[in-house]
Structure formats: structure tokens, C-alpha cells
Amino acid sequence: MTIEAFFLCFNESRMIEHTLNYYSRFCDKITILDNQSTDNSVSIVREKFPDVVVEEFDTNGEYREDILMNIRNNRWKGSEADYVIMADMDEFIVDEHLLDKLEAMKRQRVAIPNITGYNMFSEIFPNDYGRLITEQVTKKFRDRTFDKKIIFSPKWVQEMNFGVGSHFCKPVYKEGVEVQTDHSFSFNLLHFKFLAREYLYKRHRGYATRMSDVNRFLNYGQQYMLGDQHIDKAFDKIGQFLEQKSDLVSQH
Description:
It holds the Pfam family Glyco_tranf_2_4. The longest helix is centred in the last third of the chain and has 25 residues, at 227-251.
């Protein structure tokens, strides 16, 4: 069983170590696809994860979702791994029996597992890189837009046809390949986005500053233009929802 992972990166200095700490436990090869970060993301990789490959790509200093979409749809092609992960830096495929399930999927010729997506939430950023982020941040809420098929078999898939942000796809399987599409294999996707307000302020400002005319024209990534108040409202709403959910659970 071999797993190869690809992660898109732009100024991920606070997240990248969490991501690599987690995935390096079971991935045979990891490639960081860096969009010319201006922070120390790349130096963290080279210092602490020397076996991880770093590739750079240029968007002329702009946030170009069309280019990212093209990378997500093509960079994994040619991988000889049994399964590949094509993800953003804050997306974690999680399951207690992940490797065993992948082995079973391989035997049963399952190319793409089902994905159940969650957004993770914390008012404090998890700064302890000695512990897995999955252990430090456990509050979550269901988000079907993150049922993203970001793990799949390059041996059986010809095209994933990912849309914007990989939130949907239309897979095409290789000619002559018989795969099992009616199955019960499922993994969780944990999206570590809501990790302290100041962390999200900075991320959104970074995307807004680099917003390209192409993105504006196609209406890609417009949530990054809504400002700090939008983030505050989201944090308040999510916090209240999770508190109410916790109260209901405790009552039972």
C-alpha cells in the first residue's frame, strides 16, 4: 500500500507543520506545491521535513483559482501510488482504521471513498507542534460542502474533473478498468479553518490582497473580500451553535 500526497501552499507557516506532522505518519511521498510563499513556510519544510518535496508555481503574485483548479486536476497524474491525496493545507483525511480501509479498498477495487466533511473550530490557535492538531482541536460541525473527494486511486481514475475548490467533481475512470462504485467505505475530512479569529483575519486579508481580476470576473473566492466583521459573525454563530449542541448532549 502506497500513498502519495500533494498540498497547495501559500504562506502556511502556522499550519504546514501540523499538516506534515499528521500526514508524514502514513504517506510514502509528500509534495508541497508552493505558490511563491513570502513567509517561512518553505524553510519550515526544508528544515524539519527534508524528505518532503517542494515545487513552486507562479501566478504573478495573484490568487488565481483557475490555476489552482488546473493543478488539482492534473498534478497527481502519473503517480504510481495506490492512492493519492490532493488537498489544501488545512484539509485532513481522518479515520481510526485509515490504512486498513485503504488496503480493503484496494482489494475490492474501490477508487474513490465516500467523504464526510466537517469544519473544525477553536477560539485559540493550536500552537503545540509536538501534538497532532487532531488531538488539540476536537470541536466540529458538519459541512457538506467539504464532502470533497480528495483521496482517490490514480491507477483507476483518468480524470477527477474537480470544480472550484474541489468542492465537487465528475470522475472519469480509465478505459477497461472495472471499479466498485457502490460501496460503504467512508473517511472524515476535517477542515481546520476556524482556528482563532486573528488567524483567519490574516488568511482572508492575504487572499483579498492577492485577488485576481480573473477571480473577480468568475466570482471565485469572494468570501475573502467580506472583511473581519464577516469572520466575527461566523465565529459567534458557530460558537453559539456548538454550545447549544453541547448543552443538548449533556441533557441526555
